Amino acid sequence: MSEDSRYEAVCSRDARFDGQFFFGVTTTGIYCRPSCPATTPRRKNVRFFPTSAAAQGAGFRACRRCRPDAVPGSAEWNARADSVGRAMRMIGDGVVDREGVSGLAARLGYSARQVQRQLTAELGAGPVALARAQRAHTARILLRTTDLRASEIAFAAGFSSVRQFNDTLRAIYAATPTELRAARPEKPSRPGPAEAADGAPGASGGALPGASGMVPRGSGGVPRGSGGAAGVPLRLAYRGPYDTAQVFDYLARRALAGVEEMVGAPGARTYRRTLRLPHACAVVEVDERPGDGWLECRLRLTELRDLTTAIQRIRRLFDLDADPYAVAERLGADAALAPLVAARPGLRSPGTADPTELAVRAVLGQQVSVAAGRVLGDALVAAYGEPLARPDGGLTRLFPRAEDLAGAPLTELGMPEGRRATLRTLATALADGAVRLDAGAERDRAEKELLGLRGIGPWTAGYIRMRALGDPDVLLESDVAVRAGARAAGAHLEDSESWRPWRSYAMHHLWNAARPPRTG
Fold first, then answer.
1. What reaction is this protein's catalytic activity (predicted)?
2. Which of 36, 235, 350, 438 could form a disulfide with 32 if both were Cys (CB 3.0 to 4.6 A apart)?
3. 3-class DSSP state for residue 294?
4. CA dist 248 to 119, 253, 416, 479, 489, Å?
5. What is the phi/psi pair of residue 414, to 5°?
6. What is the tens place of the pLDDT at every residue in 384-399?
7. Phi, psi (5° rounding) for residue 220?
8. Is the confidence at residue 504, as pLDDT, over 60?
């Protein structure tokens, strides 16, 4: 995209490009999203940046009107499998905060200097700057949604000192922690798309896969030192149309008792589940009824340090960083898929909040129906799930760890011994690191390693690649439902090369070909 094309997007306030790039205004020192409602600056006064971290590094402050760090993340990082794409996914997951730049570099197989050079050359900011922007954004959420002391928030957000915390907030938001907290609205509001509430962490405020929105509720905040009974309230931003019915139906059909539950009537449901995070566990709730470009979410965290990672994983589960415009343009060009795309605008390809859990569930679902796989999953959770210290409604357990399943007899599961052996083999490989499915895992390598495990074939490896590794370009051609959907739609799977790089979305369209969109 040329700079002239970017400026045209700014002039037309085109929200499709929010998160794809940012622009700074040299006369004001402010940077914005393309859809900013403010008066369009003159071309000579505009500079463009691939990430908000790059804009911050150039000395620009975030616009208080359009809040550029509230935009969805760029879908590019989910599609890209190179080292930069992998690095962006890992920074978003908090790897730099937990392991430092050296840990990120080790996971990528490069030196820290090489990683710095690659990211700076392409994104205008290195890993430290990207992680710094993410920390600042996490801090702003906590300042505006909790009553924690500023010093507690500084360390919960990942800052190494209170001074660093104060200096960073002044540099990025031109405000002190006290001023940011004082700006907390007394009552909930419903801002428009370009005025969405504050974004949740995404190291680039949209450059990483995972900027999202926050909405304060009242002025009381959350009790000091805890996640509070209501949890940290968030608005999870997405781009373009979003087919909430499709996503919530998909999750409801697969919800495992004790770990997940879907409450409420269709159209007003709430998805709830437990999460196992780097420092502790959490409970998340996401509402089906969308706002103006976001989903309402509440997070009850045992450790506030897990906020950034939790949000990134929820965003991957709900596929909130997808670019439905690009998907519809490519798939809609196919005569057979065009009616399906038109019937389900905003269809998503749900990921997972826990790659290990997803891989185990993929084995449970081998050669059985979704309902039968769910029954097996319920039995696995009941036998090996870790009980919550304090049950929360229907949520009573965490999904079993890989190490808990590696040597388990699994006799509680009504399936052949061969499949139980496959499950133990997979769990062992995940527990000892022989197979990696983390945010920055190399997709081709992971799929090859999975296929090397006895009992795991192309369908299982492909399904794991699509959901656990977030690959938007997977097509399970041997899947019975995919083939049935293709026949019903008149689509030819041998023509699927033209669907790249969005074949995962094409597959969801085919899965849903016989299930018309819900109305009313």
1. Hydrolysis of alkylated DNA, releasing 3-methyladenine, 3-methylguanine, 7-methylguanine and 7-methyladenine
2. 36
3. strand
4. 36, 9, 31, 22, 23
5. -80, 70
6. 999 999 999 999 999 9
7. -75, -25
8. yes
Which residue numbers are catalytic?
A: 32, 479
Cβ contact 486:480 at 8 Å: no
| Helices within 147-187 (DSSP H only) | 150-156, 162-173, 177-182
Q: Judge contact between 125 and 51, C-beta under 8 A.
A: yes
Q: Is 283 helix (H, G, I), strand (E, B) or coil?
A: strand
pLDDT given at position 335: 96
> What strand order describes the sheet that includes 260-263?
199-200, 212-213, 232-237, 294-301, 281-287, 270-276, 260-263
Q: How far apart are CA 334 and CA 326, in angstroms?
A: 14
pLDDT tens digit sequence for 77-109:
666 778 888 888 888 888 888 889 999 998 888
Phi and psi at 235, nearest 5°, equal -115, 120
State the burial class of residue 254 (Cβ atoms within 10 Å of its Cβ: 0-12, 13-18, 19+): middle
DSSP state of 419: H
| Count of other CB atoms within 10 angstroms of residue 243 | 20
